[in-house]
């Protein structure tokens, strides 16, 4: 595992920095900086109070927390969310309550998501008239599960 230096600032002095719960964890927990109640089927964008400066060539991916999903049906609408290296604003997370009956109340400081840091490659796009063939071809969206 390679450690990278990520500069972090907070919108308020008592906002906790991202932290890993266990040695070897891929995701660092991040929290909500506000109290919020999410009604059944509702989505809410929740501020974390965190701003980061990533090294060029890295991205922070915002992943759902499995415990919130399993216990309360809370997920992230655009999972994983993308925090680009050049972004300097506050990280917010759009949460969705998938439970059909129960609201979920989150309090300031509750863990709501995880940040996973990854190296990224940039592509050079080359226009061509036709793509080379492949074993899969144009099959997509469940094509490998179809049976005659």
What does this structure look like?
The chain is mainly β. The protein has a single domain (7-142), classed as Distorted Sandwich (Deoxyuridine 5'-Triphosphate Nucleotidohydrolase, Chain A). The protein is 5% helix and 34% strand. The protein is built from 1 helix and 11 strands; from the N terminus they run E-E-E-E-E-E-H-E-E-E-E-E. The protein has one helix spanning 66-72, and strands at 7-10, 28-31, 36-38, 43-47, 50-53, 58-64, 74-76, 81-83, 92-97, 104-106, 111-119. The strands form 4 sheets. It has a 4-stranded antiparallel beta sheet with strand order 2-11-6-8. A 3-stranded antiparallel beta sheet has the order 4-9-7. The protein has a two-stranded antiparallel ribbon with strand order 1-5. The longest helix has 7 residues, at 66-72. The radius of gyration is 19 Å and the shape is globular. The mean pLDDT is 94.
């Amino acid at each position: 595992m390679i450690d990278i230096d990520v500069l972090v600032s907070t919108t308020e002095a008592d906002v906790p920095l991202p932290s890993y719960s266990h040695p070897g964890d891929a995701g660092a927990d991040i929290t909500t900086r506000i109290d919020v109640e999410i009604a059944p089927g509702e989505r809410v964008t929740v501020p974390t109070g965190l701003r980061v400066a990533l090294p060029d060539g890295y991205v922070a991916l915002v992943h759902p927390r499995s415990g919130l999903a399993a216990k309360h049906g809370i997920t992230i609408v655009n999972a994983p969310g993308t925090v680009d290296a050049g972004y300097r604003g506050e990280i917010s997370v759009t949460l969705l309550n998938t439970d059909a009956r129960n609201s979920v109340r989150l309090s300031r400081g509750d863990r709501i998501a995880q940040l996973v840091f990854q190296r990224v490659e940039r592509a050079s796009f080359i226009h061509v008239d036709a793509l080379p063939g492949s074993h899969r071809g144009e099959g997509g969206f469940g094509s490998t599960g179809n049976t005659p």
